[in-house]
Amino acid sequence: TYVISQGCIDLKDRACVDECPVDCIYEGPRMLYIHPDECVDCGACEPVCPVEAIAYEDDLPSESAGYLAINAEVFADLGSPGGAAGAGMMPADHPLVAAAQASA
Ligand code: F3S
Ligand code: F3S
User: Fold this and answer.
1) Residue 103 in contact with residue 12, Cβ under 8 Å?
2) In this structure, what DSSP letter does residue 37 have?
3) Tell me, what's the pLDDT at 102?
4) Per-residue pLDDT for 38 more than 90?
5) What is the ipTM score, two decimals?
6) Where are the beta strands (DSSP E) in the chain?
7) Which residues belong to any copy of the 4Fe-4S ferredoxin-type domain (predicted)?
């Protein structure tokens, strides 16, 4: 799966959303998350993020390694809605994202 990491926090450029053919990039209050069971690894989202917050799981920089679990765990309650457009804004970010310091 592809993974969104900390660069998205409080930025939410959303260019990635328009590229995803399966609509598996979901919005939380502070960042967006890729649903690991719905992503088909097409890679279309990765080059369009202006802050390079998206990477394939095996290519995550070490400082972003925790975001593989974060992108998965945030869907624990939501399950697999099968499309972000119909799901709307998620009620909460992953706890680690909610607690993250605001970027300068
Ligand atoms: Fe975030 Fe980059 Fe998408 S900032 S919303 S991952 S284009
Ligand atoms: Fe969508 Fe990016 Fe996966 S465009 S299918 S989230 S690689």
Assistant:
1) no
2) T
3) 80
4) yes
5) 0.98
6) 2-4, 25-27, 32-34, 54-56
7) 30-59
In the DSSP assignment, the letter for residue 35 is -
Fold for 2-98, please state it: Alpha-Beta Plaits (3.30.70)
The pTM for the full model equals 0.96
Q: Are 101 and 35 in contact (CB under 8 A)?
A: no
Which of 12, 23, 71 to probe ligand 1 with, by most ligand atoms within 8 A of CB?
A: 12
Counting ligand 1 atoms within 8 A of each CB, the residue from 1, 5, 13 with the most, and so the one to mutate, is 13
DSSP state of 103: P
Domain boundaries along the sequence of the chain: 2-98
Residue 39 in contact with residue 2, Cβ under 8 Å? yes
From first CA to last CA, the distance across the chain in angstroms is: 29
